[in-house]
Specification:
The complex is a heterotetramer, with 2 copies of chain A (238 residues) and 2 copies of chain B (217 residues). With 238 residues, chain A is α/β, with parallel strands linked by helices. Chain A contains 7 helices and 12 strands. In chain A, 22% of the residues lie in helices and 26% in strands. Chain B has 4 helices and 13 strands. The chains are: A alpha/beta (238), B alpha/beta (217). Chains A and B meet through helix 4, helix 5 and helix 6 of A and helix 2 and helix 3 of B.
Chain lengths: 238, 217, 238, 217
């Protein structure tokens, strides 16, 4: 029998290892799997490479993981947001690496990681410093650069509903990087607000097919990053 | 340089853009001043707004009691979804952008060059954290790239320059520049003044523009 | 106001021109837009390049378009099916060109056509005659070949429901090539069993966002190819 | 060559494959004989069948009154969808295949070489219409490629050969070969016999196999 449901975030992240590449869903706090990230902080592995659109806010979730010195490098498109303090400080001190990637290129590199496409040509960033050192190629008279797929050892993803097969649906713009990250990681760990019976999700509306998901954990009342930041909370809890 | 002429209010500039975008267009608005454009769509014109974080058919900020924290725009502000909207993941969202499906984007600028190069993501300061977001994807893929900006920086320096000194977002990508002083079109790597704010004359406009300006005659 | 709804298949295909590249949805007859294809037969343009997974059955739909000598070349993965007679005959006489593409490569080339990706590397067909003449490249120790995007001047697609914005949902495995073809053509023409009001399709379950669709036409009772073939019907109607 | 020994029935061969595929696997079955595997999944084992035309969680052929003509498998036969199934488009479907997400595929063969090359899509006859479908994608992407085939052709020629003479589907892609006479594993470009049908001895098996066979000792 297929049962991808794990009992707790701690159990679900138990085998994440030092030096792993981890894809983390979310656009800002929306779609960010805070409980899974906090479980990873509790666990305490180091030298992680994190692939995520942003670098977190305040001292909660992704920012707290970085503050806890567990992250060696981030691959992202927008490493600062309104309440972003941790990453900018470490970056200015040279204590964390950054690979800056245009958002659409980041998304496509992740999708290709899941699709078995090792590399592709794109017009994005041609003529800019982000194309420096990249292979250029003229195709049908237009210039493109070569970009490579991104794959993760693990993905941490947040969704709305999941079943024991790992079929997922999301809520509104919290979908963002979730579906492509699920497919691009060897082991995809998902926190779901709701676990439903197999068959409850209409086959026509499944967004992430279960084949892309290895573990599901129930987090019925996920924390809201911005609420915690407004309350000056930190993780580990202050 | 201090301007005696303030020209159009930026809301009026946004309104000009809203008037220039045809009915039925798919439009992506950058964060900040470009968002003003959404407030000025004329009645009867149906414009579909795309936000790159996964929504086509973005509507205005909802009433406080209607806010869903998981429904935001690219600027991470709460928005709504119009009837006929749809949600999708990031790869599909940038398929719309890179694939040339978005008709117009409206972006802010640090500098625009006379050949239509755009610099709007980094001042290149060594200690700042670089952040590019979706800007390079938008200028590479969207059919028409409109820039909305004040004509001069806060320090009074020209933003429309011979060559951008800040890191580029894209080369030869801007189609039109809307400032408080003028509307300028980029045609074949030359800048043509289409309209000037009341009280602005061509010679004055050229004097506050580093790039060479032309008139359509 | 946005209203992509056209009055008839004939009106919707009216500007398709000689020599156009046309993407046609369907896996066998399932998802094949027969009424749009028949309108194209009525119109009579020639020298078309057709991109479709198969080449049609009997003398109905795509097979009838080919039989009518309107197609110069087909790009497909499987040009023969149980009742496929027209294409094999023309092909054996050298009267039609074939570009044979592995099915997944065909799908990815079409997706890339819609995504602004001009070319990509893939492991599929490495070491086979279908890789002959294609650029090879070793990436991370594994061999890949370069494949290029496919774009259409037009796409003809069948779906279940559409609204006036062009938002679409499909029925079961009739989805197949529809969504990626919609995005890969300059002008996408869709026949829908049902036209619904804007807002009737839940934003979470839209499969093809309206931005990828230019024209929608109502075909409430589409013909079933296999039923017609069993009755020995041909188009133009015998 | 005419065989005195018919070996296992192909249903029994399919059953062996069904037994060898672990619980919880994602499996794609080729058209024809490979489809037999679905009939032999042991009770209690949950296997999810993928069909490349856009369905994960394919179930058996439905009762005539439950048939939806738009629900078919890759062989274009009517099928059903199990609870927990999902539909998707072709690019997503082949993302599952090419991206290494499918655990097992079971395919027919014209020939398998002793290095694990597979030829199963074309006999190379000049006048035939070539048709490849998803075969090349499957062998390039699926984690374990199983072949189910009769040991000899209808004409009595070996199908397990030193080098394929038919056009290849893929090079070094086959993991296991299941025939009516034996189960053979491909390890480091060599063929190892794991099991033989009742009455089949190694020397006999080698005599009807062009490729060199080995035993695991």
């Amino acid at each position: 029998m297929i049962n991808k449901i794990f009992n707790s975030p701690a159990e679900a992240v138990e085998d994440i290892f030092d030096g792993a590449t981890i894809l983390i869903s979310g656009f800002g706090e929306v779609g960010s799997p805070i409980e899974l990230i906090h479980a990873l902080i509790d666990k305490g592995v180091k030298n992680l490479t994190v692939v995520s659109n942003n670098t977190g806010s305040g001292y909660i979730g992704l920012a707290a993981l970085i503050e806890n010195k567990q992250v060696k490098k981030v691959i992202c498109s927008f490493p600062k947001t309104a309440n972003s303090v941790v990453f900018p400080e470490l970056y200015s001190k040279g204590e964390i690496e950054l690979e800056l990637v245009p958002q659409g290129t980041l998304a496509e590199r992740i999708r290709c990681g899941g699709a078995g496409i090792p590399a592709f040509y794109t017009p994005t960033s041609v003529g800019t410093i982000l194309a420096d050192g990249k292979e250029k190629r003229i195709i049908n008279g237009k210039e493109y650069i070569l970009e490579h797929a991104i794959k993760g050892d693990f993905a941490l993803v947040k969704c709305l509903k999941a079943d024991r097969y790992g079929n997922l649906v999301y809520n509104k713009t919290a979908r963002n990087f979730g579906p492509i990250m699920c497919a691009a990681a060897k082991t995809t760990i998902v926190q779901a607000k709701q676990i439903v019976d197999v068959g409850d999700i209409d086959p026509e509306v499944v967004v992430t097919p279960g084949i892309f998901v290895q573990r599901v954990v129930s987090v019925p009342n996920p924390l809201e990053e911005s609420v915690l930041i407004a309350e000056n909370r930190r993780y580990p809890w202050n | 340089m201090e301007l005696k002429i303030t020209g159009w209010d930026m809301n009026l500039v946004a309104q000009k853009i809203a008037n220039d975008i045809p009915d039925g267009s798919y439009v992506n608005l950058g964060i900040g001043i470009p968002e003003l454009v959404a407030n000025h769509i004329p009645n009867g014109k149906e414009i579909i707004f795309h936000t790159e974080n996964g929504l086509l058919g973005m509507g205005p900020q909802p009433e406080p009691d209607k806010i869903d924290p998981e429904l935001i725009n690219a600027g991470k502000k709460s928005v709504s979804a119009i009837p006929g909207a749809c949600y999708f993941h990031h790869a599909d969202s940038f398929m719309m952008i890179r694939g040339g499906h978005i008709d117009y984007c409206v972006l802010g600028a640090f500098q625009v060059s006379q050949e239509g190069d755009l610099a709007n993501w980094s001042t290149g300061e060594p200690n700042s954290v670089p952040a590019v977001g979706g800007a390079m994807d938008l200028v590479a893929g969207v059919k028409n790239v409109f820039v909305i900006t004040t004509h001069l920086t806060k320090k009074g320096e020209p933003k429309i320059v011979k060559e951008c000194t800040y890191p580029l977002t894209g080369k030869n990508v801007v189609n039109k520049i809307y400032t408080n002083l003028a509307v300028i079109e980029v045609i074949d790597k030359k800048l043509f003044v289409l309209e000037m704010a009341p009280g602005v004359e061509f010679n004055f406009l050229q004097s506050v523009t580093e790039a060479e300006l032309h008139t359509k005659t």
